[in-house]
Amino acid sequence: MLQIMKQTTKIAAFAALSLGVAQGALVTEYINGGVGSSNSANGVHTLGDDTAAGDFWNGGDTGTYLHESERVTGSFSAVVRVVGQSEAASGRWGKAGIMARDSLLPGSSSGMAQLASGNGSQPGGNNPVPVRLAGRTLNDGNGGFEIPVNNADGEIANDVFLADGGVNVSWLRLDYNASTNAFTSGFAADVDGAAGAWAFSDAKSDVIDTNSADGWYVGMAYSAHSDMGIAAGEGIHTVSFDNFSISSQIPEPSTSLLGLGGLLFLAIRRKR
To answer: Which carries the bigger pLDDT value, residue 74 or residue 230?
Structure first.
């Protein structure tokens, strides 16, 4: 019975994410002249940066962006699993996750469910930073916001997932509520190939959408930075994602997936 419940949880998670949004082909953009790579095979998407000079922040807004060719309109929930990296252990300020952008121009207003490899402002160290909702509110390339994801106990979920030694497989989620123009970031550990319990950031409701009718570009993003520590011969830095999906329905934080799982479990029991 335990095995059936585990399988049902996986089915429920992916069934809930498959609802609603007609997704187009994925298209790679190198924002603000970034130099990198984007490769997709067997559902795994690997984004790279071989300049270590890009950063999705402030006036730079530089990196690799693999996004839906068609804008996503209305409310949505985008989910991805972060499964690997080839960053240097000494890297700082590298960023990876799901990004929604008002435009493909540098400095666009944006919201991003984000993992980061470390805080570059701390002397001599790659200190962890929170899993967070980050981005900018205006299309001016200046400033930005960072809102940490809090776990069920109200504590900040520290990000060790792009830090020393590589990635602990984890899930990210970016929710957008069109009625309130609000972004929220979600984070969950991987449990047998499915997302475990979600933790969430507070919402950010003042990110400028210059034309609400045309929606947002939504996709996976990765940037490195000048202090990522690329050594001679080290090559390109990459982060890999899988299970990227967009739903037009935003699940409730704790009830939607469990509710669907319960229905599927009952159906399996009745069939058996």
So the answer is: 74
3 burial (CB, 10 Å; 0-12 / 13-18 / 19+) is: exposed
β-pair partners for 260:
none
The count of structural domains within the chain is 2
The tokens of 245 are what?
Answer: 């999906």
Cα–Cα distance measured from residue 267 to residue 212, given in angstroms and rounded to the nearest whole number: 40
Whole-angstrom Cα distance, residue 10 to residue 192? 8
For residue 115, report the phi and psi dihedrals to the nearest 5 degrees.
-105, 145
Lowest mean per-residue pLDDT among 61-70, 160-169, 183-192? 160-169
pTM: 0.82
Q: What are the helix (H) ranges across the chain?
A: 2-17, 256-271
Q: Which residues contact 139 (CB under 8 A, 6 or more apart)?
A: 102, 103, 105, 107, 108, 109, 208, 210
| Cα dihedral across residues 153, 154, 159, 161: positive or negative | positive
Interatomic CA distance for residues 124 and 256, integer angstroms? 44
- Amino acid identity for residue 101 in this structure: R
Report the interhelical angle of 2-17 vs 256-271 (nearest 10°). Answer: 130
Which amino acid, one-letter code, is at 12? A
| C-alpha–C-alpha distance, residues 42 and 26, integer Å | 14
Same domain, 196 and 229: yes
Same domain, 197 and 168: yes
Task: Give bridge partners of residue 184 from the DSSP assignment.
Answer: 175
Average pLDDT, rounded, for the chain: 77
CA distance 242 to 257: 19
User: Distance between CA atoms of 220 and 204, rounded to whole angstroms?
Assistant: 20
Domain span at 131 = 23-248
